[in-house]
Design a protein that fits this description.
The protein is α+β, with helices and mostly antiparallel strands. It is built from four helices and 16 strands. Strands 2-3-4-1-5-8-7-6 form an eight-stranded mixed sheet, with helices on one face. An eight-stranded mixed sheet has the order 10-11-12-9-13-16-15-14, covered by helices on one side. It comes from Pseudonocardia oceani.
Length: 256
């Protein structure tokens, strides 16, 4: 299985966590849908709960903080979160949570890009972020779905040095983004989201059977947002957990 023990290259999506109002219900839901096992880091860290596959961390679930809505935060790796935060402000973004240390694990901040999409910034310390990827239960892809795709592309190129590539058959405003020459995700417009939906990041989690995972979504109290379909990039669909947080399920790239 693809695993990692060293910090992710700066600008790479490296982690996702989910803020939920009911931690036991969330672990039951995601355990059934994604096969996660859980490790509670304890009261000192607010019961931040690591979601693991085979003993390696793939994501995390945590109780919502006062005044915080449920949702997911995708983190981009940084070699220096303070420098990245300054670049965010200089290029039309907003620093929502100033950089701070997470004892023993790293340093982080939270920001909005120039199109209003929220994301986290992670500087690895004792924790690199995702320790497993492109395996069932782990991240396989990420989309930035933005109300202004052009502004978003300019922002991320300026802050993280992303480069972009066209995707045949995709909407004109959709592109892949690359970090150090390696494709790391996609960025584009809202892709049919209901009017009024804010800019956001959509994480894609790999599963061995998309249809079975979608069935688990429904039986676990979640919602199927977009039915699973076959695409040139594999079978995939979009779901929402019982608290309304959306995520995609992806069956992996087809052979060949």
């Amino acid at each position: 299985m693809p695993t990692r023990d060293t910090p992710w290259p700066a600008g790479t999506p490296c982690w996702v966590d989910l803020a939920v109002p009911d931690l036991p219900a969330a672990t039951a839901f995601y355990g059934a849908v994604l096969g996660w096992e859980f490790v509670d880091t304890g009261e000192e860290f607010g019961h931040y709960t690591l979601a693991q596959i085979g003993g390696r961390s793939a994501a995390a679930i945590a109780p919502v903080q006062p005044g915080q809505p449920p949702g997911s935060t995708l983190y981009l790796a940084s070699d220096d979160v303070d420098v990245t935060a300054k670049l965010v402000a200089e290029h039309g973004g907003t620093v929502a949570v100033a950089p701070f240390d997470v004892p023993g694990t790293g340093r982080m901040g939270v920001a909005f890009d120039a199109a209003g999409g929220a994301f986290g910034i992670w500087q690895a310390g004792g924790m690199i972020g995702a320790e497993i990827y492109n395996e069932p239960g782990s991240l396989i892809w990420e989309d930035a779905r933005l109300t202004d795709a052009a502004a978003g592309q300019e922002f991320y190129a300026s802050v993280f040095g992303w480069t972009y590539g066209a995707v045949p058959g995709a909407p004109d405003d959709y592109a892949t983004f690359s970090v150090g020459g390696e494709i790391a995700g996609g960025i584009g417009g809202m892709m049919g989201a209901p009017d009024g939906t804010p800019s956001h990041w959509l994480p894609y989690f790999m599963v061995s059977d998309v249809d079975a995972a979608m069935a688990a979504v429904g039986s676990g109290g979640g919602t199927v947002v977009s039915e699973a379909v076959d695409t040139p990039f594999g079978r995939m669909g979009i779901a929402a957990d019982p608290f309304g947080t959306t995520f995609a399920l992806h069956g992996g790239m087809p052979p060949g």
